[in-house]
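Example record used in the benchmark description.
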Amino acid sequence: MNWLRNFMAGRYGGDQLNIALILLYLVLAIVAQITQLWVIWIAEILLLAYCFFRILSRNVEKRYRENQKFLRLWNPIKQRLLKMKIRVSDRAHRYYHCPKCKNTLRVPRGKGKICITCPVCKTEFIKKT
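Model output (structure tokens):
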């Protein structure tokens, strides 16, 4: 294993963008198997080659900047997906948006029509839970 450690010394290695590229490669591989299109096969090979290029690159600063750009795009999407997951799994509450300040409010489910007061702007509105 020393030879691998010596080989990778000074190289960038893996990061979140590489993980995303590998997952995209796997999706393309499945699609290529189903559709039998050579264009997808070439795209998947190029994607895998770029992934290995990033892993073995010695230009660490540039790869780091690429990863930071990817994370700036990915993190808002990730946060939105996590919020959706929480909402779907939370069967005891309903979620509403305040009509004035657009703040998300969580109220208990099954209480009938209730008056909801926004804690931020103190706006009151009536909704059915």
